[in-house]
Automatic annotation (TrEMBL):
The gene is aguA. The keyword Hydrolase applies. It comes from the Bacteria. The keyword Nucleus does not apply. It comes from Geotalea uraniireducens. InterPro entries: Peptidyl-Arg-deiminase_porph (IPR007466). This is Agmatine deiminase. Keywords: Hydrolase.
Length: 341
């Protein structure tokens, strides 16, 4: 049996999202954040299907129609959720002997920080409802979020020690045992562990998708802080040093593309928010990039375009999303080709 975890830039059937609702933490900003979701779905449906979990299909459909989403590519499913971070409770899809297999890992609210009982059932409920067609589902006895791993589709996984080795996830497993589990489940034989790097205001214990992203042709896009007075300067400098020491399967250095550092963002109570350009989503024919009405936005779009020269680079204003300490990649989960009904 052969197992492979596809790269995000491979052909997709669609993208899973969970729509914000009154009972979620989005309640104070619901109209504003729904517009961001609608804009994201509008662009996704230009290229592929948007599979949306929602508490109110009629309301969601009306909002999407109003912004011009291609509704023939929208699939709505009324499944209850606590919140909307589909990257971390959605299925991680592998190829097993060339066919899709949905892996449903345990989700514990990033180390029991938040309620997640309904979120943890979303993948199983969608599967029972036929959303994934004939693709089988395997429930995995391991706590793991999609935002904590990056695959190049060729057996290499990039991750952070701060998240995967955190005792609030799988305290019964050693680093070696976690590596063995990931090797078996994903068919990977190379793990690149980052020991440095974090974002203030991040609830995920340093998910890799906020810091560094694998890209085609042995490329890594990563967050770089150029402000020596900023609290992030030293940890991100040390992370950059680590990246320069990583080697490809062929033994060469990776092509490293730095992403610019946006201005500080704060909520109404003065808490710093984790604005990052690394939290982009690759889809068929395009890359959706979070922007923050910042002077660095254009440079971020240009940098990501260097890694994806054959795709349209589309900026999405994600200032409302970081109010809940996440961004564009965090609210989406790609579903590879063959894994949707």
């Amino acid at each position: 049996m052969t197992v492979r975890l596809p790269a995000e830039w491979e052909e997709q059937a669609g993208v899973l999202l969970a729509w914000p609702h009154e009972e979620s933490d989005w309640h104070p900003w619901l109209p504003m954040v729904e517009l961001v979701y609608a804009e994201i779905v509008k662009h996704i449906t230009r290229f592929e299907v948007a599979l949306i979990v929602t508490a109110d299909s009629d309301r969601t459909a009306a909002l999407l129609t109003a912004v011009g989403a291609q509704m023939e590519r929208v699939r709505l499913s009324e499944v209850p959720t606590n919140d909307t971070w589909a990257r971390d409770f959605g299925p991680i899809t592998v190829e097993r002997d060339g066919s899709p297999l949905l892996l449903d890992f345990g989700f514990n609210g990033w180390g029991l920080k938040f309620a997640c009982d309904r979120d943890n059932l979303v993948t199983r409920r969608l599967h029972r409802g036929g959303a994934f067609g004939d693709a089988p589902l395997q429930t995995v006895g391991l706590i793991l979020e999609g935002g904590s791993i990056e695959s190049d589709g060729r057996g290499t996984l990039l991750t952070t020690a701060e998240c995967l080795l955190n005792p609030n996830r799988n305290p019964h497993l050693t680093r070696e045992e976690i590596g063995e589990n990931l090797g078996t489940l994903f068919g990977v034989d190379r793990l690149l562990w980052l020991s440095n790097g974090y974002l203030a205001g991040d609830d995920t214990d340093s998910h890799i998708d906020t810091l560094a992203r694998l890209a085609p042709n042995d490329t890594i896009l990563y967050v770089q802080c150029d402000d020596a007075a900023d609290e992030h300067y030293t940890p991100l400098f040390l992370m950059e040093k680590e990246l320069t020491h990583f080697r490809t399967r062929e033994g060469r250095p990776y092509r490293l593309i730095p992403l610019p550092w946006p201005r500080d963002c704060y909520d109404e109570e003065g808490n710093r928010l984790p604005a990052t350009y690394a939290n982009f989503l690759v889809i068929n024919g395009a890359v959706l990039v979070p922007t923050y009405a910042d002077p660095a936005d254009d440079a971020a779009l240009t940098a990501i375009g260097m890694a994806y020269p054959d795709r349209e680079i589309i900026g999405i204003d994600c200032r409302p999303l970081i109010l809940q300490h996440g961004s564009l990649h965090c609210i989406t989960m790609q579903i590879p080709q063959g894994a949707l009904s």
